[in-house]
Amino acid sequence: MGSPIPEKVRKRRAISENPTASQSSSEGDFDAVVEEIQAEARRRRESGEYPAAFERELDALFEDLVPERLREHDFEAVLDRAERASLIDLHAPVDDERRAYAQVKRGVQKLILWYMDYVVRQLATFAASTTRAVRLLGNRVEAIDERQTALARRLPEVGDVGDLLPRDHHTVESWSDGAVALLSGVSGRILHAEAGDGGVVKRLLDAGADAYGVDPEAAEDSLELRAQGALEHLGVVGEGALGGLLLSGITDRAPTEAKIRLAQVAGEVLAPGGRVVLLGNDPEHWAERVPAALADLAPGRPFHADTWRLLLERSGFDGVDVRTGPETGTYLVTATRG
């Protein structure tokens, strides 16, 4: 490159070499320098001082000097860079100190220029169409994000409706005898999720089982209970690590996708021959007990017992058994891991 590196480029290097500057300050300086360089480049381009090849060389140098953290999060800048890269220069440098080599390069360039021009036009058209499509897609995603943010601002008082739903303790209490009887004889560790105050866990321990529980509201001073969500904990339990699994609470409140995942992960964490016991409420009975506004805004509603039967069978369980009562509107589903 015949001309020296302009002062503007040296400013960019100074920005990239200052890691202690705050991000907001760096981005502000960066934008100011970019605007200054663009104005200077336009002036010199119009005057003919900068040939096109020299500008492209400066752009490449600029990409090397800009801090990576300022580029990777700027979607528009990434697309702009892709569009610039799609502009292929057909006029390769042919200057050479050895005159004979320079003449050969010029000759080769003339011979293949017509063909390369044909290929490059197709590549440029494809690249331009692709970046345009990605830009349109990015605009749509940005519009969706804006609408979601606006909705969250309009409904701050609603919050996480799932947390406002009443904790379902009566279902566990009414089925505690049946759950303990089904699980106390299994081989291996037994998990109750969500365990509430740990009443069933204590009964299993008293029966000689190796049991523990998880619950988002569990007391930290209890050795048998862990303050975790059901899916959060099951996600780190090893494959086949449990002999028994009691599920309650989350079976009614969780969104549909979470309940489907719950059945799948139950099949993963239970060892062959392990048993799952699932407690739930009939959807119609649940709707009568929950305030209408919370029921309408709830992220998920209870499944029918037959829905759990289908999900468990598809997750590798055999012998699915559904029991209704002893309290109206509740049910117990049990199955064995095949």
Largest sheet: 7 strands, mixed
Question: Which percent range describes the beta-strand content?
Answer: 5-15%
What is the number of domains? 2
Number of helices: 15
Question: What is the name of the CATH superfamily of the largest domain?
Answer: Vaccinia Virus protein VP39
Residue stretches low in confidence (pLDDT < 50, at least 5 long) are 19-24, 155-159
Q: Helix and strand succession? A: HHHHHHHHEHEEHEHHEHHHEE
Helix content: 55-70%
Mean pLDDT: 78
* Level-1 CATH class name of the largest domain: Alpha Beta
Q: If strands are numbered along the chain, what order do they take across the biggest sheet?
A: 3-2-1-4-5-7-6
Beta strands, count: 7
Secondary structure elements and their pairing?
Blueprint: H1 7-16, H2 23-47, H3 52-65, H4 68-71, H5 75-85, H6 99-154, H7 161-164, H8 170-183, E1 189-193, H9 199-206, E2 211-214, E3 225-226, H10 230-234, E4 242-247, H11 250-253, H12 256-269, E5 270-281, H13 283-289, H14 292-297, H15 305-314, E6 317-324, E7 330-337
Parallel strand pairs: 1-2, 1-4, 2-3, 4-5
Antiparallel strand pairs: 5-7, 6-7
Helix pairs in contact: 1-2, 1-3, 5-6, 8-9, 12-15
Question: What can you tell me about this protein's structure?
Answer:
- There is one protein chain.
- The protein is of the alpha/beta class.
- It has two domains: 7-154, no CATH class; 165-337, Rossmann fold (3-Layer(aba) Sandwich), CATH 3.40.50.
- The protein has 15 helices and seven strands.
- It has a seven-stranded mixed β-sheet with strand order 3-2-1-4-5-7-6, with helices on both faces.
- The chain is elongated.
